[in-house]
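Working notes for the structural subgroup meeting. M.R. asked for a predicted model of this chain before we commit to crystallization trials. I am recording the input and output together here so anyone reviewing the notebook later can reproduce the run.

Input as submitted:
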Amino acid sequence: MKPQDIIKFSYNALRNRKLRAALTIIGIAIGPATIVALIAATGGFANQATAQFQKLGAETILVSPVGRIAVAGAGQSPFGGNNGGGASLDADNQKALAGLDGVKTVLPYYRVSATMRTGTQNSQVSIIALDTVQLRSLFPGIQISEGSEPGSSEFTSALVGYNVAHPGGASSDLTLNQVVSVSYSVRNQRQSTTESRSFVVKGVLNQFGQGLFLNPDDTIFVNMGTGRLLTKSNTYSGFYVVAKSADDVTDIVGQINDRYSSEMRATTVSSILSTVQTITSNISNLLGSIAAVSVVVAFTGIMTTMLTSVNERVREIGMLKALGTTRRGIMLIFLSEAVLAGFIGGLIGAAMGSSLSFWVASSLFSGGLGIGGPVRLGARPPGQGGGAAAPAVAITPAITPELFAGAVVLAVVVAILAGMIPAWKASKLTPVQALSRE
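Returned structure, recorded in token form:
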């Protein structure tokens, strides 16, 4: 029997049993659909997290005082705020860090959480005080769309992020030289007081996106003198340490840990990124294992369907053998049916999984299923103090040709394995046994 005859025979066998074939194909499609949806969604999350963390640059080290809360989203930024206990960082610490081998520059900063009023709308923002001229060394590629950064003596000027300048409507957009008012809390040893301050918009940043524990789009940048006035303190929220090259980062972190472990904690983009990638890889493996259960179900369904088909077509098998079809030909007929069903089911499943992955990414990683709320890389939940809550990061599923093809191949392989026993059983029948069976 020619290959084209076998394929045609198998196709006609599926077409003549439409309901059973449709149910079998649906059972096969569930496995690839689940695998593609879950792996693509977690892969998209990993890619997004990697892209966001890398925006700070591989040469950046974030240094925070020991004793501050070190988990983002737990109510206090690990690298922000002068409130809370722990060690204090000052100019002597800055000088010590600047003297370490491999350090290019050390940028101290203050961080204040504030409420900005625009018209009748209030929005949460972060006020970051640092040397604004050095902003591009922290966020490679960031650009000022209009105006300029405030100078060291301009205590009432500010450089605002894209979302601050464009809070949601053209009528409320901030323009150069416009005055914005913010209110913020200042704590001392006895109490917390609320103060207000106004800034003149001297510059507006282009849209940049979420960086490491800081979203420039939701931030108002001011100079260091303004930061001291806001916090009424000479101790910093932390330091951004920029290494001369990425190769120096590990050595600098080692020096900080060896010499100043009781005062400062150093965190690098690469270390956080490695942790995120490990976590997402484990999540992907776990979800993939769960999805593999559907493959086992498909395997069982195909084998059951094929065994039923063999039992129903015994006389047909006997007729084919009487006409000279070999055992190999009978096996190929039934295996080709399984392969055809697996291929169609794999294609449908992979296509369904690709579509479902967008829903999974939106629901699982953006709080739609109630799992942890929206994904906010580096932001604190509203109402827990600290900086502004960044908007949920859009997750684009990582749907690759390899993933799509792999799902189809998996469906075909499962179909072949499930069809082996029924095909072998069919090929063993002799013409006399087959034709004599009722």
